[in-house]
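Note to self: keep these together.
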Amino acid sequence: MNKVKVVICGKEYTLLTEEEPTYVYALARKLEKNIAEIVGSRHNISVYSASVMIALSTLDHMNKCNEDNDNLRVQLKEYADEASKSRLERDSAVRELEMLRSKLHELEKNQTYKR
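Structure:
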C-alpha cells in the first residue's frame, strides 16, 4: 500500500492506494486542470461546485463504461458459445467424413475382388 500526498487547488490530501504514486500524481494534476477549466470558464462558481460537477460527470462516464463492458461480456459469451457449437459441428463432420472414407475404401476393395 502506497501513501501518496497530492495537492489539489492548494489543499493537501494524503491517500492510501495500491496504485503507483506517479499515476496518482497524474490523476491529481488532471483533476486540478479540470477544476481550473470549469472555474475559469464560468463566473461565480466555486472549486467545490466544480468538483461536484466533475464527480458527477466521472460517475456518469464510469457507469456508461460499465454498461459497455457488460454488453461486451455478453457478446463475447455469445461468440464463445457459437464457436464451441461450430467446433462440435466440425468434429462431427470430420467423424462422418472419416466413416464415409472408410466405407468408400471397403466398397472399392470389394469391387476389386469381384473383378
